[in-house]
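Quick one, tokens below:
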């Protein structure tokens, strides 16, 4: 965990950032950490741009070519990181989740992490477990788990890597909370 107490009003405040393929349990574990955290913590989920279909927003996105859509997504990612970074500056921990599906998103994440105290957690699990979880969800298309696992960027300096196929969400959250600083 990177902490520079001269830069932050509360040296205990940090960003807990989860990454991993779709259906590895990022949201589930994030919610458990939020419940168990020894520090004042906010939960800010939503790094992925999803619009209800059909909707005017979804129709508008269809008009963008691949370059414009990518630029739009990176702009949304920057805004998400800006929002995450605001919490520690105001003395609160924040929990977020990101999908690192390409080099540009990885570089954006690395630049963000260099600027804030953080705990970077990668969640993994076997394909069969991801696919079973995916089939039980109604908010993602079937096949997204395999696609995000194939494209996932894994060459970051993770503080923790947790196999959510081998532990419960509560156990995973306990591992994360054990890495958080205790309040002063």
């Amino acid at each position: 965990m990177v902490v520079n107490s001269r830069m932050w009003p509360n040296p205990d405040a940090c960003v807990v950032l989860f990454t991993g393929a779709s259906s590895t349990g990022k949201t589930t574990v994030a919610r458990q950490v939020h419940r168990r955290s020894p520090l004042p913590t906010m939960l800010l989920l939503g790094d992925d741009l999803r619009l209800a279909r059909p909707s005017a927003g979804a129709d508008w996105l269809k008009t963008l070519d691949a370059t414009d859509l990518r630029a739009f997504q990176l702009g949304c990612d920057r805004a998400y990181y800006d929002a995450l970074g605001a919490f520690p500056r105001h003395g609160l921990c924040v929990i977020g989740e990101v999908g690192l599906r390409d080099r540009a998103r990885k570089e954006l994440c690395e630049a963000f992490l260099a600027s804030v105290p953080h705990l970077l957690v990668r969640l993994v699990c076997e394909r069969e477990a991801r696919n079973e979880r995916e089939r039980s969800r109604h908010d993602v298309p079937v096949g997204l788990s395999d696609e995000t696992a194939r494209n996932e960027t894994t060459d970051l300096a993770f503080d923790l890597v947790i196999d959510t196929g081998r532990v419960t969400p509560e156990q995973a959250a306990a591992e994360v909370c054990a890495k958080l600083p205790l309040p002063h």
